[in-house]
Amino acid sequence: MNAQDKQKAFEESEKRISETISKIKNRIAVFSGKGGVGKTTVSVNLAFAMQLEGYVTGILDADITGPNVAKMFGIDDRLVAHENVIVPFRKHGLKIISIAGILIPGQPVIWRGPMRSRAIGQFLSDVDWGTLDYLIADLPPGTGDEILTIAQKMKPDYAVIVTTPQEVSVIDAERAINMAKELEIPAIGVIENMSGFLCPVCNNKIDLFGSGGGRTLADNYDVEFLGSVPTDIDVRILSDNGKSILHEKPDSKVAQCFNQIAHKIEQCIHSTQENKKYAQT
Ligand SMILES: Nc1ncnc2c1ncn2[C@@H]1O[C@H](COP(=O)(O)OP(=O)(O)OP(=O)(O)O)[C@@H](O)[C@H]1O
Ligand SMILES: [Mg+2]
Predict the structure, then answer these.
(1) Over the stretch 240-273, which tens digit does the pLDDT of each residue have?
(2) Which residues surround ligand 2, an ion (CB under 5 A)?
(3) Residue nearest to atom 31 of ligand 1 (CA)
(4) Which of 52, 124, 188, 223 has its CA 20 to 30 A from that of 261?
(5) Architecture field, domain 25-162+228-280
(6) Smallest Cα–Cα separation from 60: which of 88, 30, 97?
(7) Are 96 and 114 in contact (CB under 8 A)?
(8) Ligand 1 binding site (Cβ under 6 Å of any ligand atom)
C-alpha cells in the first residue's frame, strides 16, 4: 500500500468511527493505573446495571493483551463478520466486543502500542454497534497507548477511575485522574473497590486493603466519589463462571453498590451534557 492509499484508508476508517460514535449517546472509559484492582469487574457490572435499567448498552474490551471481558461473560465463541462488519457478541441483551473472540485460548498478543491502538480503532470503525445509550470501555492497567486511543477515538464523556483503598493503588489512581484531566474527559469519578471484607464466618468487617483511600483521593482532586464496593467472595466465584452478581444475587450489598454507582454516573453525564447545552445557548 503506498502512502496515498494508506492516507485514504485512514480517512475512511476515521469517518466510520465518527459515524459509530454519533449513534452512541454516552461513552464511559474505565481505567485505574494499577492492575488487578477490579476494572473489568466494574465495567461488566456497570454494563449490567445500565442494561437492567433499560438502557441499550455495549462493552468494548480495550485490554488487548489481557482481555478478560469475554471470560467474565462466559463467552468462548469466535467473533464473526457479516459483509466486512464485525458482529458483537450478545449476552443478556448487552453487546460485547473483545479480542479474545479472535485469539486461540492461551495465545499471547505480542503487539507494540500502534498495533494495539489499531485493534481498538477497528473495534469502533468495523463493529456493528448500532444505536447505544451507553458504551463502556474496559482498559488495561497503566496510562498507556490504549487510553490515548480510547480518548481520541471514542471520546468518552466520563472517566471511571477504579482503586482499592491501599496506598500503592491510590498513587497509581492519582496518575489516572491526572491523565483523564489532561485528556479533557469532561467528568471523572472514583470507585473504591475491594473496600472491606465481610467475614462470612464471624460477620466482622475486615479492612484487608485499608479504607477511605478512594474517597480521600476524589476529595483531593475535586472529582466525584462514586462509592465503595466491598470485597465479596461471590463476585470472584460468579465472575470466574461468567456470571454477574447483579443477575444472580440482586439483593446483595455489592449488587446494590453497582446499581447506585451506575445511577450516579447516569445523573452526572446527564447534568454535564445539560450544562454544555446551556453554555452553548
Ligand atoms: N469487589 C470484589 N470482591 C471480590 N472479588 C473481586 C472484587 N472485584 C474484583 N474481584 C476479583 O479480583 C480479580 C481482579 O479483578 P479484575 O480482573 O476485574 O481486575 P482488573 O483491574 O480488571 O485487572 P487487570 O488490571 O488485570 O485488567 C478478579 O478475580 C475479580 O473477580
Ligand atoms: Mg481487566
Answers:
(1) 999 999 999 999 999 999 999 999 999 998 888 7
(2) 39-40, 68
(3) 236
(4) 124
(5) 3-Layer(aba) Sandwich (3.40)
(6) 97
(7) no
(8) 32, 35-41, 63, 66, 68, 140-141, 193-194, 229, 231-232, 235-236, 239
Q: Which residue has the cell 482481555?
A: 67
In whole angstroms, give the CA distance from residue 90 to residue 39: 21
Tell me the C-alpha to C-alpha distance, in Å, between residue 2 and each of 13, 118, 139: 17, 18, 33
Chain center to CA of 5: 34
Question: Could you tell me the CA-to-CA distances from 103 to 66, 68, 78, 97, 109 in Å, in that order?
Answer: 11, 12, 8, 13, 8
pLDDT tens digits, residue range 174-197?
Answer: 999 999 999 999 999 999 999 999
Secondary structure of the chain as H, E, C letters: CCHHHHHHHHHHHHHHHHHHHHCEEEEEEEECECCCCCHHHHHHHHHHHHHHCCCCEEEEECCCCCCCHHHHCCCCCCCEEECCEEECEEECCEEEECHHHCCCCCCCCCCCHHHHHHHHHHHHHCECCCCEEEEEEECCCECCHHHHHHHHHHCCCEEEEEECCCHHHHHHHHHHHHHHHHCCCCEEEEEEEEEEEECCCCCCEECECECCHHHHHHHHCCCEEEEEEEECHHHHHHHHCCCCHHHHCCCCHHHHHHHHHHHHHHHHHHHHHHHHHHHHC
pLDDT band at 278 (very low <50, low <70, confident <90, very high): confident
φ and ψ at residue 182, rounded to 5 degrees: -65, -35
> CA 99 to CA 118: how far, in whole Å?
12
Q: Hey, whose CA ends up nearest to atom 9 of ligand 1?
A: 38
pTM for the structure as a whole: 0.95
Cα 75 to the center of its chain, rounded Å: 17
What is the Cα–Cα distance from 199 to 208, expressed in whole angstroms? 11
Q: Which grid coordinates are listed for 230?
A: 466491598
